[in-house]
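Homework help board

Subject: predicted structure for assignment chain

Our instructor gave us this sequence and asked us to write out the predicted structure in token form, then describe one feature. I got the tokens but I'm not sure how to describe them. Can anyone check?
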Amino acid sequence: MKDNRDLKPKIVASNIRKIREFRNYTQDYLAAKLSISQNAYSKIELGYSKLTLDRLFQIAIILEVEVMQLLNLDYSEYTHAIPAPGQVSV
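My token output:
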């Protein structure tokens, strides 16, 4: 069985992808906002690239979610809590 430390980066990457898709944003859009190539962004979502704390915060801002929502281990728990684009969560 995989160590929990090995699973967390994959879960974060998966959460980023799911929230991006929920927002109907393309990988190209996020890559442009992050000033990286689409290929580099794709590697983030696949868990092939390690995320810096700064990059994680940048992604959270673009996706309009709290960083903790990206780190949450159970995506289904907060899907309903993701505000629509432009709305502020309370």
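Reply (TA_rk): Your tokens look well-formed. For the description, you could write something like this. Residues 4-73 form a domain with the 434 Repressor (Amino-terminal Domain) fold (CATH 1.10.260.40). That's the kind of observation they're looking for.
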